[in-house]
Amino acid sequence: xxxxxxxxxxxxxxxxxxxxxxxxxxxxxxxxxxxxxxxxxxxxxxxxxxxxxxxxxxxxxxxxxxxxxxxxxxxxxxxxxxxxxxxxxxxxxxxxxxxxxxxxxxxxxxxxxxxxxxxxxxxxxx
Length: 126
Description:
This is RidA family protein. By secondary structure, the chain is an alpha+beta fold. It has 2 helices and 6 strands, in the order E-E-E-H-E-H-E-E.
């Protein structure tokens, strides 16, 4: 059985999907980009601010499922320029305890939705 997870504290989906699906104790999130959930504006002028907004959006989705970053077991990071990796990694890393950080891959792609620079999705378990 699946439970749809949606919160107004993260951007509304821009297509035929939900912010996350909870099945059993496992949460599968959709990718989050740097849309401000209150204004709908894209935060893309600076990669640090952009990544921070992505992580805040993800935090809201996790919270809607009564989870935190401590519940995350797997993260996928998609970037448009691997040259931004260290700045993205610094922001991302601030949300996790290094000793219990999730598994992760970071992949450079040709394009992302709305031509953003970073998109992150996660899997979390209660």
